[in-house]
Specification:
CATH class of the largest domain: Mainly Beta
Structural class: mainly beta
Number of domains: 4
Mean pLDDT: 85
CATH architecture of the largest domain: Roll
Strand content: 35-45%
Order of helices and strands: EEEEEEEHEHEEHEEEEEHEEHEEEE
Helix content: 10-25%
Number of helices: 5
Shape: globular
Radius of gyration: 24 Å
Largest sheet: 13 strands, mixed
CATH superfamily of the largest domain: Baseplate protein-like domain - beta roll fold
């Protein structure tokens, strides 16, 4: 049974009270971002400048009956002019503390031989942040970072290295995600039906004809000649019509197979990043009453932008806005290739058989 269409009233719950009737609203959720954000604006009279919301207050943001953000008020701004007095409240998901902060001084900055979920729960615990694992990988990895490094920087590097994405959810949890794990959008984005504005950006400067990944087969104690330790991987984008080379040096031990896969993934990601759709749609909800959501698959039927109706795009970013033009949702869509992140082999599973170019007992791998 379709969900009953509720209204688009934006409500902030702060300190046991609810606040509504905002003149302007902006709520942004982005895949591969640690924290969704919001900003709301209201006007006040000279006789009543109080609003009861202060920076650092805990907040929950709803659109109708749908929770869309759980976090903190990060900024309160009061301004005035001849036309009146304005108050703007801004905030972010609970995960913003991962983005901004280092681990508490004296706590461990190295977590070894644990699953992704275990590692991330360990670093999120001091901030009271939960972890939702949509991938359920059983691989065991190490998470290490410098004492002066922000948790967000370390976590982002860790997830990219291990072939998974991250985002947050409406409850303020950190989410280990995969592209499209938000499900399928109910509605098709369709020219002449629900699209107000559209733009397609195809940026060929992000693509290259040839990709080369360089790496080392073994550590310096190997008895192999230096030249034998130097390995390469290649990939070609046949859609690029002139010679454009991209060369990347990979760290750590490698094999020709691994470097080859990395070159292919690099080519695919560059291709995906070169093609972006941006749309504005009237209203925040689809025809079945559900909100448009980030990291969902969406079909696009737009002859002006020459899209393939059968191709599913990933909603990479979404912004709900309310202003004098009404309630509008802005969507940024990318192809699946943008989120193809290479998954490194568990080092404990690497054996000599994976390196045919290395002789057995020639040195440590």
């Amino acid at each position: 049974m379709p969900k009953k269409i509720s209204d688009n009233t934006v409500t902030l719950f702060v300190n046991g009270r609810k606040y509504e009737n905002w003149l302007e609203v902006s709520i942004t959720c982005t895949l591969q971002s640690l924290a969704r954000t919001f900003s709301v604006r209201s006007t006040r009279s000279k006789e009543d400048l109080t609003i009861g919301i202060q920076p650092q207050d805990e907040v929950k943001v709803f659109i109708g009956d749908d929770l869309v953000l759980t976090g903190y008020v990060t900024k309160r701004e009061v301004s005035y002019s001849a036309s009146g007095i304005s108050i703007t409240i801004s905030g972010a998901s609970k995960t913003v503390d991962l983005q901004d902060c280092c681990m508490p001084h004296g706590m461990a900055n190295s977590y070894k031989n644990q699953t992704h979920e275990q590692n991330l729960k360990a670093v999120c615990a001091p901030f009271g942040i939960g972890v939702v694992d949509q991938v359920k990988s059983v691989d065991r990895r190490n998470l290490e970072f410098a004492p002066t490094e922000t948790v967000g920087a370390a976590v982002t590097r860790y997830l990219q290295k291990n072939g998974i994405l991250l985002t947050d959810d409406e409850a303020g949890n950190l989410v280990i995600a995969q592209a499209g794990s938000g499900g399928n959008a109910h509605d098709t984005l369709e020219l002449g039906k629900n699209i107000l504005e559209g733009k397609r950006t195809q940026d060929a400067s992000k693509r290259f004809s040839d990709y080369v990944t360089l790496g080392q087969a073994a550590n310096p104690t190997s008895e192999l000649p230096v030249s034998a330790n130097h390995l390469k991987g290649f990939a070609q984008d046949e859609g690029v019509r002139r010679n454009r080379w991209f060369v990347k040096q990979e760290s750590g031990n490698a094999s020709t197979e691994i470097l080859q896969k990395k070159a292919i993934v690099l080519k695919d990601v560059k291709f995906g990043d070169s093609d972006t759709l941006t749309y504005k749609v009237q209203g925040w909800r689809q025809s079945n009453g559900e909100l448009w959501k980030v990291n969902a698959w969406a079909n696009v039927d737009d002859k002006w932008l020459e899209t393939d109706r059968q191709l599913k795009w990933v909603i990479a970013s979404i912004t709900y806005t309310l202003n004098g033009s009404g309630s509008i949702v802005s969507l940024e869509l990318k192809q699946q290739q943008s989120f193809m992140i290479f998954k490194e082999v568990d080092t404990k599973k690497i054996t000599i058989e994976m390196y045919p170019e290395i002789k057995k007992d020639s040195g440590r791998v």
